[in-house]
From TrEMBL:
<dbReference type="InterPro" id="IPR018060">
    <property type="entry name" value="HTH_AraC"/>
</dbReference>
<feature type="domain" description="HTH araC/xylS-type">
    <location>
        <begin position="233"/>
        <end position="330"/>
    </location>
</feature>
<dbReference type="InterPro" id="IPR032687">
    <property type="entry name" value="AraC-type_N"/>
</dbReference>
<dbReference type="Pfam" id="PF12833">
    <property type="entry name" value="HTH_18"/>
</dbReference>
<keyword id="KW-0805">Transcription regulation</keyword>
<dbReference type="Pfam" id="PF12625">
    <property type="entry name" value="Arabinose_bd"/>
</dbReference>
<dbReference type="InterPro" id="IPR020449">
    <property type="entry name" value="Tscrpt_reg_AraC-type_HTH"/>
</dbReference>
<keyword id="KW-0804">Transcription</keyword>
<dbReference type="InterPro" id="IPR009057">
    <property type="entry name" value="Homeodomain-like_sf"/>
</dbReference>
<protein>
    <submittedName>
        <fullName>AraC family transcriptional regulator</fullName>
    </submittedName>
</protein>
<keyword id="KW-0238">DNA-binding</keyword>
Length: 332
Protein backbone atom coordinates (compact mmCIF):
# COMPACT_ATOMS: atom_id res chain seq x y z
CA UNK A 1 0.00 0.00 0.00
CA UNK A 2 2.90 2.32 0.64
CA UNK A 3 4.64 1.60 -2.64
CA UNK A 4 5.04 4.57 -4.91
CA UNK A 5 3.05 4.49 -8.10
CA UNK A 6 4.62 4.76 -11.55
CA UNK A 7 3.93 7.74 -13.83
CA UNK A 8 2.06 6.84 -17.02
CA UNK A 9 4.99 8.37 -18.95
CA UNK A 10 7.13 5.31 -18.20
CA UNK A 11 4.48 2.93 -19.55
CA UNK A 12 4.17 4.99 -22.75
CA UNK A 13 7.96 5.15 -23.04
CA UNK A 14 8.33 1.39 -22.47
CA UNK A 15 5.96 0.79 -25.39
CA UNK A 16 8.02 3.01 -27.72
CA UNK A 17 10.18 0.17 -29.02
CA UNK A 18 7.12 -1.99 -29.70
CA UNK A 19 5.53 0.88 -31.67
CA UNK A 20 8.73 1.31 -33.64
CA UNK A 21 8.72 -2.41 -34.53
CA UNK A 22 5.05 -2.29 -35.53
CA UNK A 23 3.99 -4.65 -32.74
CA UNK A 24 0.31 -4.50 -31.77
CA UNK A 25 0.32 -4.51 -27.96
CA UNK A 26 -3.40 -3.79 -27.49
CA UNK A 27 -4.16 -7.36 -26.33
CA UNK A 28 -1.31 -7.19 -23.80
CA UNK A 29 -2.68 -3.95 -22.35
CA UNK A 30 -6.17 -5.46 -22.20
CA UNK A 31 -4.82 -8.52 -20.40
CA UNK A 32 -3.07 -6.31 -17.81
CA UNK A 33 -6.06 -4.02 -17.32
CA UNK A 34 -4.22 -0.95 -18.64
CA UNK A 35 -6.66 1.17 -20.63
CA UNK A 36 -5.73 3.59 -23.45
CA UNK A 37 -7.41 6.28 -21.33
CA UNK A 38 -4.89 5.67 -18.57
CA UNK A 39 -1.94 5.72 -20.96
CA UNK A 40 -3.12 8.91 -22.66
CA UNK A 41 -3.54 10.85 -19.41
CA UNK A 42 -0.18 12.48 -18.50
CA UNK A 43 -1.04 12.68 -14.79
CA UNK A 44 -2.21 9.06 -14.48
CA UNK A 45 -0.24 6.51 -12.45
CA UNK A 46 0.21 2.75 -12.55
CA UNK A 47 0.56 0.36 -9.63
CA UNK A 48 4.12 -1.12 -9.44
CA UNK A 49 2.73 -4.63 -10.04
CA UNK A 50 1.08 -3.49 -13.28
CA UNK A 51 4.31 -1.92 -14.51
CA UNK A 52 6.32 -5.06 -13.68
CA UNK A 53 3.84 -7.19 -15.63
CA UNK A 54 3.94 -4.78 -18.58
CA UNK A 55 7.73 -4.97 -18.83
CA UNK A 56 7.76 -8.75 -18.50
CA UNK A 57 4.98 -9.08 -21.09
CA UNK A 58 6.85 -6.87 -23.56
CA UNK A 59 10.08 -8.85 -23.12
CA UNK A 60 8.30 -12.07 -24.05
CA UNK A 61 6.27 -10.55 -26.87
CA UNK A 62 9.24 -8.78 -28.49
CA UNK A 63 11.76 -11.53 -27.60
CA UNK A 64 14.06 -8.70 -26.46
CA UNK A 65 15.12 -7.58 -22.99
CA UNK A 66 16.09 -4.21 -24.52
CA UNK A 67 12.44 -3.77 -25.64
CA UNK A 68 13.42 -2.64 -29.12
CA UNK A 69 15.63 0.24 -27.94
CA UNK A 70 19.05 -1.35 -28.54
CA UNK A 71 20.99 -1.69 -31.76
CA UNK A 72 20.34 -5.43 -31.52
CA UNK A 73 17.92 -7.44 -29.36
CA UNK A 74 18.95 -9.01 -26.06
CA UNK A 75 17.36 -12.46 -25.85
CA UNK A 76 15.14 -13.06 -22.79
CA UNK A 77 17.25 -14.95 -20.29
CA UNK A 78 20.40 -12.90 -20.93
CA UNK A 79 20.06 -10.98 -17.66
CA UNK A 80 19.45 -14.23 -15.76
CA UNK A 81 22.55 -15.86 -17.29
CA UNK A 82 24.63 -12.81 -16.39
CA UNK A 83 23.42 -13.08 -12.78
CA UNK A 84 24.25 -16.82 -12.66
CA UNK A 85 27.73 -16.01 -13.98
CA UNK A 86 28.28 -13.38 -11.27
CA UNK A 87 26.61 -14.84 -8.18
CA UNK A 88 29.62 -16.92 -7.05
CA UNK A 89 32.11 -14.02 -7.10
CA UNK A 90 33.67 -13.20 -3.75
CA UNK A 91 32.89 -9.46 -3.74
CA UNK A 92 30.94 -6.78 -5.57
CA UNK A 93 33.87 -5.63 -7.70
CA UNK A 94 34.41 -9.12 -9.13
CA UNK A 95 30.67 -9.56 -9.68
CA UNK A 96 30.29 -6.26 -11.55
CA UNK A 97 33.37 -6.96 -13.67
CA UNK A 98 32.08 -10.40 -14.58
CA UNK A 99 28.63 -9.01 -15.36
CA UNK A 100 30.05 -6.33 -17.64
CA UNK A 101 32.31 -8.91 -19.30
CA UNK A 102 29.25 -11.07 -20.00
CA UNK A 103 27.48 -8.23 -21.82
CA UNK A 104 30.65 -7.25 -23.71
CA UNK A 105 30.34 -10.60 -25.50
CA UNK A 106 27.46 -9.04 -27.47
CA UNK A 107 29.25 -6.30 -29.45
CA UNK A 108 26.07 -4.55 -30.62
CA UNK A 109 24.75 -4.13 -27.09
CA UNK A 110 25.08 -0.97 -24.94
CA UNK A 111 28.63 -0.54 -23.62
CA UNK A 112 29.08 -0.34 -19.83
CA UNK A 113 32.42 0.31 -18.13
CA UNK A 114 33.65 0.55 -14.53
CA UNK A 115 36.41 3.04 -13.70
CA UNK A 116 38.13 4.39 -10.56
CA UNK A 117 38.30 8.11 -9.72
CA UNK A 118 40.37 8.33 -6.51
CA UNK A 119 38.07 7.00 -3.77
CA UNK A 120 35.09 6.88 -6.12
CA UNK A 121 33.88 4.41 -8.74
CA UNK A 122 32.00 5.38 -11.88
CA UNK A 123 29.79 3.01 -13.83
CA UNK A 124 29.43 4.57 -17.28
CA UNK A 125 27.01 3.78 -20.08
CA UNK A 126 27.71 4.61 -23.73
CA UNK A 127 24.18 5.50 -24.82
CA UNK A 128 24.82 7.86 -27.74
CA UNK A 129 24.16 5.20 -30.40
CA UNK A 130 20.95 3.80 -28.91
CA UNK A 131 17.53 4.31 -30.47
CA UNK A 132 16.10 5.65 -27.22
CA UNK A 133 14.14 8.89 -27.78
CA UNK A 134 12.56 8.86 -24.29
CA UNK A 135 15.80 7.63 -22.63
CA UNK A 136 13.92 4.60 -21.30
CA UNK A 137 16.74 2.10 -21.87
CA UNK A 138 19.35 4.45 -20.40
CA UNK A 139 17.23 5.01 -17.28
CA UNK A 140 16.51 1.28 -17.01
CA UNK A 141 20.11 0.14 -17.32
CA UNK A 142 21.38 2.63 -14.74
CA UNK A 143 18.61 1.73 -12.30
CA UNK A 144 19.01 -2.03 -12.82
CA UNK A 145 22.79 -2.07 -12.30
CA UNK A 146 22.54 0.11 -9.19
CA UNK A 147 19.82 -2.00 -7.59
CA UNK A 148 21.38 -5.30 -8.66
CA UNK A 149 24.62 -4.25 -6.95
CA UNK A 150 22.71 -3.24 -3.82
CA UNK A 151 20.86 -6.57 -3.76
CA UNK A 152 24.07 -8.58 -4.17
CA UNK A 153 25.69 -7.06 -1.06
CA UNK A 154 22.47 -6.82 0.94
CA UNK A 155 22.54 -3.06 1.43
CA UNK A 156 21.63 0.02 -0.56
CA UNK A 157 24.59 1.53 -2.43
CA UNK A 158 24.47 5.25 -1.75
CA UNK A 159 24.83 7.16 -5.02
CA UNK A 160 26.91 10.33 -4.87
CA UNK A 161 25.99 11.55 -8.35
CA UNK A 162 24.23 10.49 -11.54
CA UNK A 163 25.07 12.11 -14.87
CA UNK A 164 23.05 12.01 -18.09
CA UNK A 165 24.25 12.59 -21.64
CA UNK A 166 21.01 14.43 -22.48
CA UNK A 167 19.24 17.58 -21.23
CA UNK A 168 16.75 17.29 -18.37
CA UNK A 169 13.67 15.58 -19.91
CA UNK A 170 10.06 16.66 -19.46
CA UNK A 171 9.55 13.83 -16.96
CA UNK A 172 12.62 14.90 -14.97
CA UNK A 173 10.48 15.48 -11.87
CA UNK A 174 10.14 11.67 -11.62
CA UNK A 175 13.91 11.17 -11.48
CA UNK A 176 14.12 11.63 -7.71
CA UNK A 177 12.29 8.27 -7.43
CA UNK A 178 14.89 6.62 -9.65
CA UNK A 179 18.06 8.42 -8.58
CA UNK A 180 17.80 10.02 -5.10
CA UNK A 181 21.07 11.95 -5.33
CA UNK A 182 22.55 15.00 -7.10
CA UNK A 183 21.98 14.81 -10.87
CA UNK A 184 23.81 16.45 -13.77
CA UNK A 185 22.19 16.69 -17.21
CA UNK A 186 23.76 17.40 -20.62
CA UNK A 187 26.95 15.73 -19.40
CA UNK A 188 29.51 14.03 -21.63
CA UNK A 189 28.26 10.61 -20.49
CA UNK A 190 25.53 8.82 -18.56
CA UNK A 191 26.94 7.33 -15.36
CA UNK A 192 26.56 6.43 -11.68
CA UNK A 193 29.14 7.55 -9.10
CA UNK A 194 29.52 5.78 -5.73
CA UNK A 195 32.19 5.16 -3.08
CA UNK A 196 34.76 2.45 -3.76
CA UNK A 197 34.24 0.88 -0.30
CA UNK A 198 31.24 -1.00 -1.69
CA UNK A 199 33.44 -2.87 -4.18
CA UNK A 200 35.16 -4.85 -1.42
CA UNK A 201 31.94 -6.00 0.24
CA UNK A 202 31.18 -9.73 -0.01
CA UNK A 203 28.13 -11.00 -1.86
CA UNK A 204 25.35 -12.02 0.54
CA UNK A 205 23.27 -13.80 -2.11
CA UNK A 206 23.51 -17.34 -3.51
CA UNK A 207 21.87 -19.61 -6.09
CA UNK A 208 18.84 -20.14 -3.83
CA UNK A 209 18.09 -16.43 -3.30
CA UNK A 210 18.91 -15.72 -6.94
CA UNK A 211 16.18 -18.10 -8.10
CA UNK A 212 13.55 -16.10 -6.19
CA UNK A 213 15.09 -12.79 -7.31
CA UNK A 214 14.90 -13.74 -10.99
CA UNK A 215 11.18 -14.59 -10.85
CA UNK A 216 10.44 -10.86 -11.08
CA UNK A 217 13.71 -9.14 -11.91
CA UNK A 218 14.94 -7.04 -13.50
CA UNK A 219 11.41 -5.73 -14.20
CA UNK A 220 10.78 -5.58 -10.46
CA UNK A 221 13.89 -3.45 -9.98
CA UNK A 222 12.42 -0.82 -12.30
CA UNK A 223 9.06 -0.69 -10.55
CA UNK A 224 10.32 -0.28 -6.97
CA UNK A 225 11.30 3.37 -6.60
CA UNK A 226 14.34 3.99 -4.41
CA UNK A 227 13.23 5.93 -1.34
CA UNK A 228 16.81 6.79 -0.46
CA UNK A 229 17.59 8.88 2.59
CA UNK A 230 16.37 12.36 1.66
CA UNK A 231 14.20 14.27 4.11
CA UNK A 232 11.14 13.89 1.87
CA UNK A 233 11.68 10.11 1.74
CA UNK A 234 11.98 9.89 5.53
CA UNK A 235 8.87 12.04 5.88
CA UNK A 236 6.93 9.83 3.49
CA UNK A 237 7.87 6.74 5.52
CA UNK A 238 6.78 8.48 8.72
CA UNK A 239 3.42 9.55 7.24
CA UNK A 240 2.72 6.10 5.79
CA UNK A 241 2.83 4.42 9.20
CA UNK A 242 -0.72 5.50 9.97
CA UNK A 243 -2.65 6.84 7.00
CA UNK A 244 -5.88 6.93 9.04
CA UNK A 245 -4.57 9.65 11.35
CA UNK A 246 -2.62 12.20 9.34
CA UNK A 247 -0.37 14.31 11.57
CA UNK A 248 0.03 17.99 10.79
CA UNK A 249 3.34 19.59 9.87
CA UNK A 250 4.02 20.77 13.42
CA UNK A 251 3.54 17.27 14.85
CA UNK A 252 5.79 15.75 12.17
CA UNK A 253 8.49 18.36 12.79
CA UNK A 254 8.38 17.56 16.53
CA UNK A 255 8.78 13.83 15.78
CA UNK A 256 11.78 14.61 13.59
CA UNK A 257 13.24 16.94 16.25
CA UNK A 258 13.39 19.99 13.97
CA UNK A 259 11.39 23.20 13.83
CA UNK A 260 8.45 23.55 11.40
CA UNK A 261 10.30 26.36 9.64
CA UNK A 262 13.39 24.17 9.12
CA UNK A 263 11.23 21.30 7.84
CA UNK A 264 9.51 23.60 5.33
CA UNK A 265 12.83 25.02 4.15
CA UNK A 266 14.48 21.61 3.65
CA UNK A 267 11.48 20.28 1.75
CA UNK A 268 11.48 23.39 -0.44
CA UNK A 269 15.18 22.77 -1.19
CA UNK A 270 14.25 19.23 -2.27
CA UNK A 271 11.60 20.68 -4.59
CA UNK A 272 8.55 19.57 -2.64
CA UNK A 273 6.29 20.52 0.29
CA UNK A 274 4.49 18.82 3.18
CA UNK A 275 1.14 19.07 1.39
CA UNK A 276 2.59 17.69 -1.86
CA UNK A 277 4.10 14.67 -0.07
CA UNK A 278 0.83 14.03 1.74
CA UNK A 279 -1.12 14.25 -1.52
CA UNK A 280 1.31 11.86 -3.26
CA UNK A 281 0.90 9.34 -0.46
CA UNK A 282 -2.88 9.71 -0.52
CA UNK A 283 -2.86 9.25 -4.29
CA UNK A 284 -0.75 6.08 -4.07
CA UNK A 285 -2.88 4.57 -1.29
CA UNK A 286 -6.03 5.36 -3.28
CA UNK A 287 -4.61 3.70 -6.40
CA UNK A 288 -3.69 0.63 -4.34
CA UNK A 289 -7.27 0.20 -3.12
CA UNK A 290 -8.91 1.13 -6.43
CA UNK A 291 -7.01 -1.72 -8.08
CA UNK A 292 -8.61 -4.14 -5.63
CA UNK A 293 -12.20 -4.78 -4.56
CA UNK A 294 -11.46 -4.50 -0.84
CA UNK A 295 -12.97 -1.05 -0.13
CA UNK A 296 -15.79 1.06 -1.55
CA UNK A 297 -15.07 4.57 -2.85
CA UNK A 298 -16.59 6.00 0.33
CA UNK A 299 -14.40 3.80 2.54
CA UNK A 300 -11.29 4.85 0.62
CA UNK A 301 -12.28 8.51 1.01
CA UNK A 302 -12.74 8.03 4.76
CA UNK A 303 -9.42 6.21 5.16
CA UNK A 304 -7.64 9.08 3.41
CA UNK A 305 -9.22 11.64 5.74
CA UNK A 306 -11.78 13.16 3.35
CA UNK A 307 -14.99 14.19 5.07
CA UNK A 308 -17.01 13.88 1.85
CA UNK A 309 -16.63 11.42 -1.06
CA UNK A 310 -17.08 14.37 -3.45
CA UNK A 311 -13.92 15.99 -2.04
CA UNK A 312 -12.03 12.73 -2.64
CA UNK A 313 -13.35 12.59 -6.23
CA UNK A 314 -12.16 16.15 -6.93
CA UNK A 315 -8.75 15.56 -5.36
CA UNK A 316 -8.16 12.26 -7.17
CA UNK A 317 -9.06 13.76 -10.54
CA UNK A 318 -6.67 16.64 -9.84
CA UNK A 319 -3.89 14.17 -8.98
CA UNK A 320 -4.36 11.70 -11.84
CA UNK A 321 -6.67 13.25 -14.44
CA UNK A 322 -9.24 10.47 -13.85
CA UNK A 323 -12.11 10.10 -11.39
CA UNK A 324 -11.84 7.26 -8.83
CA UNK A 325 -14.77 5.48 -10.54
CA UNK A 326 -13.15 5.72 -13.98
CA UNK A 327 -9.83 4.50 -12.57
CA UNK A 328 -11.48 1.51 -10.86
CA UNK A 329 -13.45 0.68 -14.03
CA UNK A 330 -10.30 0.48 -16.17
CA UNK A 331 -8.62 -1.72 -13.55
CA UNK A 332 -11.33 -4.39 -13.71
Amino acid sequence: MRERTIASHFARAALGGARRLGFDYSSLLLQLGISPELLDEPRARLAPEQFTQLIQGLWLALDDEYLGFGNAPSKPGSFAMMCHASIHCRNLEKALQRGLLFYSLFPQGPRLTLSREDEWVRLSLADAQLWDPDHFLTESLLVIWHRLGSWLIGQRIRLEQVTFSYPRPDHGAEYDLLFPCPMTFASDQSSLLFHSRYLHMPLLQDERTLKHFLERSPADLLSRPDDGDSLSSRLRRLLSRDSANWPDLEAVAAQMHISPQTLRRHLREEGTSFQELKDQLRRDIAIYHLGRADLSLQQIAEQLGFSEPSAFHRAFKKWTGLTPGAYRAQEQ
